[in-house]
Amino acid sequence: MKIIAVANQKGGVGKTTTSVNLAACLAAKGKRVLLIDLDPQANATSALGHEPIDQHSIYGPLLGAEDIARTVVPTRFDHLWLIPGDIELAGAEIEVARAEDHLTRLRDALQPLRDDVTFDVVLLDCPPSLGILMTNALAAADELLVPLQCEYFALEGLSKIVHVVEQVRASGANPGLNIGGILMTMFMRNNLAYQVIQEVQNHFGDVIYKTVVPRTVRLSEAPSHGKPIIEYDPNGLGATAYRAMTLEFLARQKAEKRSG
Question: Which of 100, 170, 236, 243 minimizes the number of CB atoms within 10 Å of its CB?
């Protein structure tokens, strides 16, 4: 079972869009996928057409008050399950921070799923902040996927994420954590976008995905209809991009298994 944290402390970069659409595309390929909505705003939850459900967020497992298996709900998509987000998670920022093992609460909560190999992939949709929920996700994850908007300030945000990854490693909470992929999002054909992509490639090389996700109205509309893009606009540019990105993701996982 692979746990992937989808994170960027900057909002509006396509993080939840990537979490939801990668989850849907992997499920369409027959992979058993669990999407965990760690954001109190529950955007990933609503983007799949779900409402928050009382006592079905990751809040209880984070506090050690509930078994994680009880919070998992099926979606209408084959092979795709969800732990919904909930406003209660805003309180978890404070309550978990008080605990001695505050960095590893999520990792411990996910351990039963690892032991049983319940899913092939678990995607953690992180809130847009550097708070306790995001650091818990980084401590629990096998690798980090960073959606990055094709604009200049995205480079500054990326340096902050790299710093946080280094801190999580140094703390001993997750010494093996690495940035497994950087996905360029909201691409428009202009010089700045190409320059930003080139700059990221210069620093991170093959970590950056070859697939670039375009800025499209359809991708923006899909969450308001509670549908991933492969359902809402299956033949559009957004769906094509996320399908291609998913194939890249699977190829990387396969190559990693071979080298491991």
Answer: 100
